[in-house]
Amino acid sequence: MELLSYLLSEAVEGAVMNSKKTIVGLTLSLLLGNGIVVADWGDVYYCQATVWDGMMEKSDGKMTSYDPGKFQFKLDQARKSMVFGDGFVFGDHTIELKTNLLSPANEVWSASGVWSNGTAQGYFNKGRLMWASTSDFGLWAVVADCDKF
Prior knowledge:
Layout: H1 2-33, E1 44-56, E2 64-65, E3 70-76, E4 81-84, E5 94-103, E6 108-114, E7 118-125, E8 128-135, E9 138-148
Antiparallel strand pairs: 1-2, 1-3, 1-9, 3-4, 4-5, 5-6, 6-7, 7-8, 8-9
């Protein structure tokens, strides 16, 4: 009986130790992995616009809200640029990242330049893109939530 009691206590103690190790391992994984996002050149971001407003040249000064869409962009190191995919309002454009606020690893950067017969300015901060542009077509403002996959 003592042997059985000893074996049971050893089995329970071993199971508890294994459970503790598993819990500690999972906790450390969550703490180390949660909230720490490191961006890198070549990363592709998939975005969902939450706001897309514009004022066309011939709209009598009235803003129009459009159905927000999806789009993507890639961080291109050779060009130090955001390269947008086809579709949505950005349609296959490239815009240069500004070196005064360039930190892809921290997911913070700004971009500006010539854009569709006008100018554009964008700011990206940890998954949120805020974008404004003016052109011969009018004014555009886009706010989007973006994630890497």
